[in-house]
Amino acid sequence: MSQYSDSKLKLFALNSNSKLAAEIAEVIGLKLGKSSVARFSDGEIQINIEESIRGCDVYVVQSTSAPVNEHIMELLIMIDALKRASARTINIVMPYYGYARQDRKARSREPITAKLVANLLETAGATRVITLDLHAPQIQGFFDIPIDHLMGVPILADYFEGKQLSDIVIVSPDHGGVTRARKMADRLKAPIAIIDKRRPRPNVAEVMNIVGNIEGKTAILIDDIIDTAGTITLAANALVENGAKEVYACCTHPVLSGPAMERIQNSKIKELVVTNTIALNEEQKSEKVTELSVAPLIGEAIIRVHELKSVSTLFD
């Protein structure tokens, strides 16, 4: 591994995704910073930073994935520790931003928890956030500090381009994901289709009809998050029933909670392609699931931020 030359750049990992953090460190050419996370007997978190970071630009890798609240508290306490140890800048690398689906008041008396999390990070002392595929892009506006919003579509598109599938159509599982599907379709020079669905009650999706031509084609479903996999598996089954030749699915953030894996195994999905923004546990690993690494993208973004270069050119 070639060594990154600036000793003022420090990279630390917390517990949510230490494997990804190690990959990012390798991409940059750094050793991970020395720190430890311990628990008191009542569950309180204690963090020790075991090297000097005075005057350094520190990057902390932490996805706020399950257990979400544990990982958010770890991160907030780490930020406070870094601030009190005189770090020059505290940059949060959050591949998956938890609570992003609570981004607006859909009903009376609902919280906007995505904004609350942004406030907590800023109040703790974060000076920048680097994240991937926010569920709602407007969450960037919840912050008063710089936020670099990276995209997973190029990584997913490159993988499917390499498979050289013929006669493909990119499918959005709902109206909200059309922009994402269009970005993928532009990269793969393919048409798009949309699943028009109605949801009779929360967590129950009901497919209504398919807008676009999918007859005899290889369909690639794309979403940002797959959680319980109800929407994506229902969509895949509907595509096959309506004449699609075969169905692939992909997403940036594999939350895969509850019955997700069972649903995917029993669905018409031939292959589910995900990134490693969230670490997969043993139950979530399967011959149907392909995991791609976002480490090269995040590593390059960190170097560009640190060297005051443009990050947007990563998507040209």
From TrEMBL:
Organism (species): Bacillus suaedaesalsae
Keywords on record: ATP-binding, Cytoplasm, Kinase, Magnesium, Metal-binding, Nucleotide biosynthesis, Nucleotide-binding, Transferase
Catalytic residue positions: 197
Enzyme class at the top of the EC tree: transferase
Listed name of the protein: Ribose-phosphate pyrophosphokinase
Binding site for D-ribose 5-phosphate: 199, 223, 227-231
Annotated ranges, domain Ribose-phosphate pyrophosphokinase N-terminal: 9-125
Organism taxonomic ancestry: Bacteria, Bacillati, Bacillota, Bacilli, Bacillales
Main location: cytoplasm
Subcellular location: Cytoplasm
Annotated residues for binding of Mg(2+): 135, 174
Biological or metabolic pathway of the protein: Metabolic intermediate biosynthesis; 5-phospho-alpha-D-ribose 1-diphosphate biosynthesis; 5-phospho-alpha-D-ribose 1-diphosphate from D-ribose 5-phosphate (route I): step 1/1
UniProt cross-references to InterPro entries, sorted A to Z: PRib_PP_synth_CS, Pribosyltran_N, PRTase-like, PRTase_dom, Rib-P_diPkinase, Rib-P_diPkinase_bac
